Multicopper oxidase domain-containing protein (Antrihabitans stalagmiti), 481 residues
Amino acid sequence: AMTLATAAVAVTAYTWTIARVDTVGRVDFEKPLQLPPLAASTVGPDGVRSFDLDMQSGTSDLGHGPDTETWGVNGSYLGPTIRAKRGEKVRMNVSNRLGVTSTLHWHGMHLPAAMDGGPHQLVEPGTTWSPQWTVDQPAATLWYHPHMHGETADHVYRGIAGMFLIDDANGPALPDRYGVDDIPVIVQDKKFNGESLDASSAIFNDTGVLGDEIMVNGTPGPYLDVTTERVRLRLLNASNARVYNFGFSDDQDFQLIGTDGGLLAKPVAMQNLRLSPGARAEIVVALSPDTTTVLRSTPPDLGAGFWNDRFAGGADSFDILQLRAASTLASNAVVPEILSTLPDLGDPTVTRRFDLTSSTSLNNKSMDTNRIDEVVTVGTTEVWEVHNSSGQVHNFHVHDVQFQVLDTDDPSLAGRKDTVYIAPNETRRLLMRFTDFTDPSMPYMFHCHLLRHEDQGLMGQFVVVAPGETAASSAPHHAGH
Ligand code: C2O
Ligand code: CU
C-alpha cells in the first residue's frame, strides 16, 4: 500500500499526464515514407551558396483526411533538407508568409549570434531575413525550427522544422546516398481533433503536448523499402516534449555512429538509444534480404524508478517505421572502425552552475529577453554544471557550441552533444569551449528543449565577449515588446 501511494503522488508531481498510449502492433505501415526534398540552392559569383526558405501555411494529409491545416517551409508540412559542405559560405533567405511573426533557428550550428535565428532575429510577416555565415564544423545532422519566444512550441507543432546536414569531404566513407541508404527520420508525436491537427493551447499541459500518434517526416504508419545491405538513419526527435527510446522490433543491434554535433570517435553497437526532444543520432542498421524490421520506441529510462514502472507493460511504446529489405541487397559502405577524432576542448577555467528549478524557471528566474544572464569570454573552456531540482522531466540545450558530457560512460553521450537529457535530481557536467564569435549585445540561448518549458521561461541568455570587453547592459529591445 505504501508503494502504491508513493507512486500515485509521484505521477501527479511529474505532470506527464496524457502519455498512456500504446500503438505497438497496431500500426499497419501502409504508406511509403516521404522524404523531405533536398533544398535547392544557387552559388553566386561571391561563392556564397544561397537557399530560399519560405515559411508558409497549407494543408496536408497526416492520416486524418487531406485538409489538415499545417505549416511548412517551401511546402505545407516540414521543410526541405538543407545540405552544405564544411567550409562553405551560406546565405539563407528566410521569408515569412505565415501572417504572424516567427524566427528560424539553426539548431546545433556554430555561428555569430546575430545569424542564429533566436528570439532576437524576428522575421515579421511579409519580410525576408537573410543571415549569412561560413559553415565551419564537422559533418553533422543539425536541424532548423522557429524560436519565437512564447510561440516556439506552437510553431514547431504546426510543422515548421527541417534537417540541416553538414558534409565534410574529409570524412570516412559511410552510406551517404540521400533517400537510398542515408535516410532522414524526423520523429514527431501528434494529436488530432477530427481532421484537424490539434494545435490548440488546450493540449499543451505543463509538460507540453504528448501526442498519441507517431509520424516520420509527416508520414503516419510509414514503411521504407531498403535496397542496400545497410541503411543509415538520421534520427531527429522533433517532438515537442516526448522522450523516445529507439530500438528494433527483433532487438537487433544497430551501430550508433553519430550524435548531435557529428560522428563519434568509433561506432558503438547497441540495442536501445534514448533521445530527448531536439537531439539527433545517426545509426546504421544491417538487414538480410527479404526481411522486415520495425524501428520502435519502448519506455525510456527517465531516471526515476517509479516513473519507469509507470511505463511498464507497453504504455508509451510506439512502432515508428517499418524497414522492408528487398530480395537482393546492393552492397554499400561498411562502417569503419574509426569515424572521427573528437576535439580536445582544453582545461576548464570557469564553472557555472545552473538549476532547472521548475517548468518555468532556470536558477529561479524566468526568461527575460532583455536580461543577459551569463557573460562568457571567447577562447575559454568552461564547465556548465546543470542540476534538475524541479522534480520534472527536462533536457538542456546550449546554442553555438557542441559540448562534451563529463563523468559518464554512456556511449550515446560520448560524442559531440548540444542537447542532453537531465533526469529529476540528476546533475550533468558539460564541458564546452567558446570560439570565434563575439558580440557583447547579441545573446545566444540556453534552455530546456521541451518546447513548452522553453516558451514558459526555462531559458536564459549568454553573450560571448572579447577578453576585457563587457556585455551591453541589456539585450536588444524589440519594438512592441
Ligand atoms: Cu532547437 Cu534554442 O533550440
Ligand atoms: Cu523542461
Observations:
- The pocket of CU-O-CU linkage (ligand 1) is lined by residues 105, 107, 145, 147, 278, 397, 399, 445, 447, 449 (CB under 6 Å).
- The radius of gyration is 21 Å.
